[in-house]
Amino acid sequence: MNYVMAALQLHMQGNDTVILKARGRAISHAVDVAEITRNRFLTEFEVKNIEIGTEVVENENRKSNVSAISITLGKKS
Length: 77
Fold this sequence. Notes:
Blueprint: H1 2-12, E1 17-23, H2 27-41, E2 45-59, E3 62-75
Antiparallel strand pairs: 1-3, 2-3
């Protein structure tokens, strides 16, 4: 719910779009936040764009490929 509240605050500050980004295991949380936000709180918002990809992350001199997602929510047209 903290991320949902953060998305609501961005909207209250006058933003017409909210972008949720996540990597790895947090992707499912980003999807949940997007759905809760647009179904319960910002019903005038819809999913405008979803981008998926892979990012290279370096941990302790070791490189790993990590899945990433970016979900853009915006006001309905």
